[in-house]
Amino acid sequence: MVLRRVLSSTVAVAGAAALTACSTMLAGTPVSVFADPFKVAGMQAVDGPTGLRPDAEPPTREVEGTDGGEIDEIAAQSVSDIEQFWQGAFSQTFPGEFTPVSALISWDPDDYEGTFCGVETYGFANAGFCSRDRSIGWDRTLMLPALREAGGDTGITMVLAHEYGHSIQRQAKLNKRGTPVLVGEQQADCFAGSYLRWVAEGNSPRFTLSTGDGLNAVLASVILFRDPLPSEDDLYSSGAGDEHGSAFERISAFQFGFTDGPGACAAIDAKEVAQRRGDLPVALQSGQTGEWPVSEESVRAVLEAMKILFPLDNPPELSLGAADCANARPSPPVSYCPATNTIAVDLPALQQLGTASGDDDDFSALSGDNTAYSVLMSRYMMAVQRAHGDLVLDSATAGLRTACLTGVATTALTEEVQTPDGNTVALTAGDLDEAVAGLLTNGLAAGDVNGEPVPAGFSRIDAFRVGVLGDQERCLQRFP
């Protein structure tokens, strides 16, 4: 979050490539969102078993080039399960009959001999769908083990469901030649979400997925393996031809499919994606990092920006001391006290929250300045709710309402705000992803006045997106 110029999100036409390899390691039609804070897209949010069933049916597909190891076994089970889902779901959604992919191919990227889709696989740590021969392939020693580390067995299943989504696109004839890669990638994320909803409902004979911690882990996998953050120069030089979308966009597409099924995925096109993006920044300016280190000055500047964007007759005061409140518990690193109308900030703890780990394989690597600032903004939006006078602040619904209003505040910063202290506060590319990472890992920006978040990360991110794409009134109607 720093000073920036607004970059319009133009998407260039890209030719269709034979190989769709989209799980890069780091790494509009509105859909229904259910406001029950203890449910996930209408399903009860519960922790429980997630992964390959101990009594799983054997795979129906064989793997070429396999080493016979556990990773390839999970991959074969995953594709077999995905195909069982589409055997029923395809004809219910699209005209024609479903056709399975032609082959499953595994490789070791340290092996000089392997090929996939006519490409040597040495050094190719990825997974992909080959439109030339309708095969799916994966790297079994780097990419898939990392996915399993991040999201368990279903981390592997998720990425292969995404790759299978590219086969579904072609069979359903969703996209014309020249459709932006960005559209196809988000359709595939959506198809993966629709399959995993089927698993979460208990329909899979091979996998289980809980709607609490299990689904959180799958969402973490989606975020971890997003595209690296591009610069303006990257987009101008490449024409955005290989762009897959931000973590916020990809996780949104996944949720569309999980919530509303495969039919929602067909509604994702260039117009819908552009409408959903609006003026949200998608790339960093030349020389820009997108990071504004958390300090007393930056905290004061962000709160001043909130006062300008969301003026109150009695705005909250800032305290850098200990949080002490008669009618709310502390929620460090940022707490709001309704009794005194004060926002208390533990500055060292907030600085730690807003600092990435530096390890690309660690989920905290997705943290950044807006992981911290989104929490700060959420406590200001708690003061906005207090000013309404008739809203309950200490409930699960209040937590979702706060996440939604934090989304509204985030979008409001797409326009630069000049503060009285001479700072300029504005959203930069990557800030939405940092907020989403925080919502999934700690949930503080979706906490009620006591800092208590709803249990499901899916619901927190869903509520945040409602705000990003909406306004205050929509949040108050959705989460009364």
UniProtKB/TrEMBL annotation:
It comes from the Bacteria. Pfam families: Zn_peptidase. PROSITE patterns: PROKAR_LIPOPROTEIN. Residues 47-66 are annotated as: Disordered. Keywords: Hydrolase, Metalloprotease, Protease, Signal. GO terms for biological process: proteolysis. GO terms for molecular function: metallopeptidase activity. Residues 1-27 form the signal peptide. Residues 54-64 have a biased composition (Basic and acidic residues). This is Putative metalloprotease.
